[in-house]
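Why does residue order matter? Because the sequence determines the fold. Keep that principle in mind as you read this record.
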Amino acid sequence: MDPKTLFSLDGKVALVTGGATGIGRMAATGLMMAGARVLIASRKGDACEAVAAELNAIDAQGSAEGFAGDVGSEEGIAALVAEVSKRTDKLHILMNNSGVTWGAPMGQFPHQAWEKVMNVNVAGVFHLTQSLLPILIKSATADDPARVVNVGSVMGDAPLGDGAYSYAASKAAVLHMTKIMAKELAGHHVTVNALAPGPFVSKMTAFATADEDMRDKVGADVPLGRVGRDEDIAGCMQFLCGQGGAYLTGAILPVSGGIQVMSGPNLFRAALEG
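Structure:
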């Protein structure tokens, strides 16, 4: 087994939503470095074009191209699918990364924070995947399935979403929906897996990761002692989307430094130490 072929994405075409910043950009970089042609889409088309130009300037096997795409409405998803279809007749990888959040304390959390967050984070993931299924299935084979990777959160796996109620619930829905899709699409040679990240540097987490001192403080509360790095996401994507991940579906990869297995104190420590 040649490790170069296990994780190679030569000749593959990928779409990463929300790919201009944060985890999406980390994933797009990892896919491109492995040889994929990566389509980067988000609401800010200019930002996607700029990031694609930056990525194309590095020494990588693949290529990148950016354009506008909004998964927040049915019309936006239809336009995004049409744009993808203009650019390629094959799609081997779909990363559903676009997402929004909302934070407010209990007693002040607005009703509108549910509709907006659930619409993008859950309905957008489902409807975009559903809309792109024909091209994904056409690009898939039994030996080399098409890959869908959804971005959840450790907040969707553990009760950590204090103040981010709709976000945490939406990410729990993404993780559950991933398993449902995996079951239903396996017969079409499409794998569906998800990432459940912990703290990474992004615009969404800028309030807690904007500078090194803040990142150190956040990392101190992570079992592995740090926040996530670019290569943590890139490595997961190369594994899930390469030949090495072809037999994996319905999995949730907890890219959270061990947060998902944190628990309460040792119940009997005081008695044993006494």
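The mean pLDDT is 93.
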